[in-house]
Design goal:
It comes from Streptomyces antioxidans. Its cofactor is Mg(2+). Its EC number is 6.3.3.2. Belongs to the 5-formyltetrahydrofolate cyclo-ligase family. This protein is of the alpha/beta class. The protein has a single domain, classed as 3-Layer(aba) Sandwich (Rossmann fold), CATH 3.40.50. Helices cover 29% and strands 23% of the residues. It has five helices and twelve strands. The chain has helices at 3-19, 23-37, 41-44, 62-70, 143-154; strands at residues 48-50, 74-80, 86-90, 97-99, 105-107, 122-125, 129-131, 136-137, 159-163, 169-170, 184-187, 190-193. The strands form three sheets. The protein has a seven-stranded mixed sheet. A three-stranded mixed sheet has the order 8-7-10. Strands 4-5 form a two-stranded antiparallel sheet. Helix 2 packs parallel to helix 4 (62-70). The radius of gyration is 16 Å and the shape is globular.
């Protein structure tokens, strides 16, 4: 099986597992995940965090985003562009989110431009799994591959953190040439580091 087919099969498997979660499962995992994430030193010290609004079976990000905002952290949220690249807007709270394409919720405020993410201290990435090298399995749309390439091109070095459920840490995720490792994963039961970051 080639790498692309292996990724598709792995995505199907993990999406099927997530589809069996109840709303209570997702909310409880999101609360536990927020507690764990807030222990991450990079988030403790962050002034700006690029996050996202979880949808469907994704681990909930609401509690984490609200806790960051309560600390005075500037939280950026993605805005999906027509070409599947990401623009960014500021998280002004749950009452300031609007429905968008693909069932997403996006900030209603001004657009800050795709380059805004280069000013983040931490980028929280969605994913379906990550392996012990920090290689992340995304949904396959390529939006976050563009974000990671943009960060590299700008010489930006934020902490890259993927938010997952327990059981989504794998021994190996199929890897392509454009894939970039994340530094850490947060699950409801703990923090997992993969690559050292200079401090």
């Amino acid at each position: 099986m080639n790498i692309d087919a292996s990724k598709r099969a792995l995505r199907r498997r993990h999406l099927a597992m997530r589809s069996r979660l109840t709303a209570d499962d997702i909310e409880a995992a999101g609360a536990a995940l927020a507690c764990r994430a807030l222990e991450l030193p990079e988030l403790v010290d962050a002034a700006t965090v690029a996050a996202y609004v979880s949808v469907g079976g994704e681990p909930g990000t609401y509690a984490l985003r609200e806790a960051l905002r309560a600390r005075g952290v500037r939280v950026l949220l993605p805005v999906l562009l027509e070409d599947d690249d990401l623009d960014w807007g500021e998280d002004e709270g749950p009452g300031r989110l609007a429905p968008a394409r693909r069932g997403l919720l996006e900030p209603e405020g001004p657009r800050l431009g795709p380059e805004a993410v280069t000013g983040a201290d931490v980028v929280l990435l969605p994913g379906l799994a990550v392996d012990r090298r920090g290689m992340r399995l995304g949904r396959g749309g390529g939006s976050y591959d563009r974000v990671l390439a943009r960060l590299a091109a700008a010489g930006a070095d934020p902490a890259l953190v993927v938010l997952l459920y327990d059981g989504e840490l794998l021994d190996e995720v199929p890897e392509e040439g454009h894939d970039r490792p994340v530094h850490a994963a947060v699950t409801p039961s703990g923090l997992h580091r993969f690559t050292a970051r200079p401090r």
